[in-house]
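User: Fold this; C-alpha cells only.

Assistant: Input:
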Amino acid sequence: MMTAFWGIITLGILIFVHELGHFAVAKWSGVKVLRFSLGFGPRLLSWKKGETEYLVCLLPFGGYVQMHGERKNNPDEAPVSSDDDRAFTNKGVFTRMAIVAAGPLTNLLLPFLILPVAYLVGIHTPAYQIATPQVGHVATQSPADDSGFREGDLLASIEGRRVATWEEANSVFAMAAKEEVSVTVSRQGQNQDLQLAKVAGESYDLRSVGIFPEQAAVLGEVFEGDPARVAGLREGDRIVAINGTPINSWYDVGTVINAAGGAEVTVEVQRAEERLRFTMLPEQSSQGRFLIGISPLQETYLKHFPPLEAVKAGAQKTVELMRLTGDFLRQLVAGNISTDNIGGPVMIVQTAGAAAETGIAATLLFLAFLSIQLGFLNLLPVPVLDGGHLVFFLIELIFGRPLPQAAQETALKFGLLLLLLLMGLALFNDFSRFFS
C-alpha cells in the first residue's frame, strides 16, 4: 500500500511540475487558462479561482492545461474572434512555442533544483571510494589489461598528481584532458609508469577502462527463485570456494562458475562460525553467461556535501542523467536496446516505493531521473506530445501559415495510436515483470 502511495505521489509531483510550466508561461503571455487538471477521468476535487478551474481527477497518469482558443471549432467554447488577444491561437508562433515547450523544459530544470538538496541531506556512497586505490581486478582485454595493469597494483599517482583514495583517483583520471593518461603504480614495492587510454564515449572513471577496486565475495542479495536461493544461500554468506577452487574476491565467482560450462556447481560458504556446502545448477542468461542469482554486498557510507559542493554535484549529476537518457533513447530508436527495457506506471510505482523506503536522497534522485525521462519523452516529435506540436509550429514558422487543420487532425490520430501502442507495450512489460 505504501509503495503505491509513494508511486502516485511521485507521478503527481512530476505531472504538476510539467503542467505548471505550461500554466505559468501561458499566464505570463496573457493567455486565458480555463482549466488546470492533475489526472484524468472523474474529478475528486475541484475549485475555481479567478478565471481558472482547478481539478484533481481519479486517474493520476497525466494532466492537462486547457487554454482559451487552444483548438479551433472547439464545441466546449464559443467561437474565438480574430481580435481576441487572450486566445492561444491568436498569439504569435514564438509565444505558442514557448508555452508548449515550457512543460518538458520545466521537467528538465527540476533536477537542478532538487538534486543539490539530496547531496546536502547526504548520499549513500560506495565505501571503496575512501579506501586506498589498490586494484582488485583488471578486466580481460580491456584498455587497462592492454596497458599492463595487474591485480594488486597500488595507484600512486595520475598525471603526476598523488592519489590517496579511489575517489581522488577517479576524479583526477576524469579531469585529465588527454586521450592517454600517465599512471604510476606501486607493484611489489617498485614504481612503474603505465599509459592508460581513455575509452571514447564512456564515462571517464577507472571502471570504464577495466580497473576495479577490491570486492570481497560476500553476498549482498540472493534473488528469489534463482538457483542460489533455492539451494539455500543467504545474504551475508562469504563464498570461500566453488568446485574446490578457492575464491579470493568477488571477481573470481563469475569466472569459476562460467568455467563449469553450465554443469552443476558446489559452492562452499562461511556463514558465521559454520562452513556450509550447497549444490546448484546455474542458469544461462541471454548473453550466454551462466548465473546463479547473486550480487555482492556493497558497503556504503553517508556522505554530506557543503552547500556549494552540493549545487555543483547536483548539476553534474543532472547532466550525467540527461546524457544517459539521451543515449538510451538513441540506442532504443536504433534497435540496439530491446523494447523489454521500456517500463510503465507499475514499474514507476514499484521503484518510487523502493526509493522512498531507502530515504529522501534516493527519492529525490529517482524523482530527478524520472523528470528527465518525462521531459525528453515529451520533446519527441510525435503528434499529441509537446514535441509534435512544436513541429507543427515550426512548419508554420517556415511556410508562413499553419498546417491545414485536416492534416493536423490526421497526424494527431496517428500520434495518439502510436502513444497508445507504446503505453500498451509498457504495461505489458510491467505486468510481465510483476508476475514473473
